[in-house]
């Protein structure tokens, strides 16, 4: 589904597999735009909290979707989040959002309402789209599908470092909590009725245990270029 701006790249993977960070850096290297679709669900969760909507009330949550927007920054990365006209980019990773975003995202009505919004962003091509159902549901005709993966232990280590938890074994209780959180999130994402987390049959699986960030980015860039040619791709207004 290559558009006038270039290829469409789908990146899926479990929590803390590096989809957002690696995807954004790979997109920049290739001269492509970038969208982290998880921000839509975080925005929905934020607005649900503001409106007092239960995270399992699919129809009411879906009615909030028209008030959600992702906007590009100067580099073409759709990382700016707005809800009900308010800039909330700095709020969507709050612990209160973390606690309910899985429940919000598993509602079929929410996923159905967001599907055309996500496809619209990719319609003109020239974009890397990251999420959990991009290659399987949102963009099944993407030019290349990548599944970015890592073991639970490695993903927990990375998330711990993000939270300031050292990986030297000195904070065992905190490490165990993170492992439990990720295990629960994996179970929810892979078992939900609507668009569960799956590896697309034609996806390139990249396992990043032991990779530096730069090595993970290089692996994604190499996979894309082997499929659709070398970037950077021309930008079309």
Short key terms for the protein model shown above:
237 residues; globular; 6-stranded parallel β-sheet; 3-stranded antiparallel β-sheet; alpha/beta; Rossmann fold; 2 domains; 45% helix
What secondary-structure arrangement, pairings included, does this model have?
Blueprint: E1 8-12, H1 19-30, E2 33-36, H2 38-51, H3 58-62, E3 68-71, E4 77-78, E5 80-83, E6 86-87, H4 95-98, H5 101-105, H6 108-122, E7 127-131, H7 134-138, E8 144-149, H8 152-162, H9 172-191, E9 204-207, H10 213-228
Task: Give a short synopsis of this structure.
This protein has helices at 19-30, 38-51, 58-62, 95-98, 101-105, 108-122, 134-138, 152-162, 172-191, 213-228, and strands at residues 8-12, 33-36, 68-71, 77-78, 80-83, 86-87, 127-131, 144-149, 204-207. The protein has 237 residues and is an alpha/beta fold. The chain folds into two domains: 8-17 and 126-224, P-loop containing nucleotide triphosphate hydrolases (Rossmann fold); 33-125, P-loop containing nucleotide triphosphate hydrolases (Rossmann fold, 3-Layer(aba) Sandwich).
Molecular structure report:
This protein has 237 residues and is an alpha/beta fold. The chain has 2 domains: 8-17 and 126-224, 3-Layer(aba) Sandwich (Rossmann fold); 33-125, Rossmann fold (3-Layer(aba) Sandwich), CATH 3.40.50. The chain is built from 10 helices and 9 strands. The radius of gyration is 17 Å and the shape is globular. The model has no long low-confidence stretch (mean pLDDT 91).
